[in-house]
Write the structure tokens for this entry.
Amino acid sequence: MKESGGLEQRRRRRRWLCCVLCILVLVLFVVTAVVLALTVFKIREPTGELVSVTVSGVSPRVDLPALRVELNVTLDVAVRVHNRNYAAFAHAPGGRTNLLYRGAQVGEADVAPGRIPARGSELLQLALAVEVERIAAELGSLLSDVVAGAVAFDTLTRLPGRVTFLGFIKRHAVATSDCHVVIGVSDLSVRSQDCTYKTNL
């Protein structure tokens, strides 16, 4: 009788230890998941830097019936985008950059699809088509800026894509940036840039 009572007590102790161990493992799993969610899996906005701007083409067009001259300028723009996440970001077709001068859209460029590795960078090459006739309404301001030696622009960029964690967890994301850039007239150098970034899941 005593032997069977001792056996039952040992069984009860084992069950209790097993329950405690299961609870500890569950708590450890929850804590690990929370830490990962707040660090590794937390989505951070990518950052960007305008590296260079060069004029690659000027195409005048004369419209004889309307007696109008149209002038389009193509700017080759290099932008370095840094992915601060522990997950790769693959941006899909449909990425676009709009160029604004004093609030009016004066140019645009498509962003080719690509992939920015986790904690890595990608250099985006954009062919930005500037429609000079759109600036005509602000011609006086543009001439003043040119004489002053620097022209300020705003750029709005939208990159739809997908974030991939651990190679198999995939989430759709849209990265956007809003930048105020000042370009030097004499050498087309980037004098200053101030950007805000946002990522929507």
In short: The longest strand covers residues 47-63.
